[in-house]
Amino acid sequence: MLGYKVMRIEGDRLVSGADSRQSFPARKGSTIRMLGNGVYLSPNKQYVLTYYSGLADDEVLLTLEFAEADIRWGNLTDREAEVGVSAVKVVKLEPLD
Known about the structure:
mainly beta; 6-stranded antiparallel beta sheet; 9 strands; globular
């Protein structure tokens, strides 16, 4: 499955907006894992852009691949779906202006 997430970028690192101690290589093909409920994302690209972009000066939109079995939190069938996933693979990084 595919999902979307906006993250701050600092140099060659993606930085979590909720916990700046968590950062990851900004590299296509890399795997991201986060503590707690996992990596928060949505299957709705426009939802992510509307509610989560514009919070930092330098941001990227991530397209992430994940397995439905890896969902720790949330529900994909919600109208404005958000889920927490134990691990995701970075498929695409798009800088946001």
